[in-house]
């Protein structure tokens, strides 16, 4: 057997094996996104690709449709989670996206609304560290695979050369493909299953960015030329209880420089900080002040 034929057969086997846990998600749109049987009875898909959250069905490999129930979603990481009852659907083999390198061959998989399996092959074009989505979601790695993103591929898996699913594909800017890594998916699924929502830290303040005078920046040895000024303090909230005042300008949060409200929100999005004392540095009356704030949990709308 030629090496090319052996590679072709190996790829087809990988697609078949990994694709057994891939479904189509029928959610009221003309083009159905795909979904992944992530855990026993747990289906994940791309949140932005859904037209609704109720009366959802999934299509399996044999074309049979099954109802699923909505468990929750996190728009900031583009993950929606559903429950599938009484199933015999294989569960994915989850891999470690941190092993990916630029140039590694990968596969994008999808399932059509009639149950047909689809695949696209390419290479990893970009891998970097953690990043924050435009909606403020903390995502553990930035992964951009160079694969063709055909209709219906959103919500489907990215598969490495060993046949492991290392993340979920979604659409980026200008038609590019981004992959939400498995570690981020696990974190979101865990929170949705235990709490029914995504926990985020809470200060109880209104903020806006402000530029600091250059002489003040120099005198106080501040890390940035801008900070975040407090324009509102919620009575009896975490910030109020800690003594934060109107007009205070936050310059560091938990040892990290902040120069915009997005910086503070991104740090609060880490649920590990909830219930912990976090040190903030702020400028008050021309002096640098340190405060410890007990981070609360953002109320659920």
UniProtKB/TrEMBL annotation:
Belongs to the peptidase S1C family. InterPro entries: PDZ, PDZ_sf, Peptidase_S1_PA, Peptidase_S1C. Residues 209-271 form the PDZ domain. Gene3D superfamilies: 2.30.42.10, 2.40.10.120. Keywords: Hydrolase, Protease. The keyword Hydrolase applies. It holds the Pfam family PDZ_2. The keyword Protease applies. This is Trypsin-like peptidase domain-containing protein.
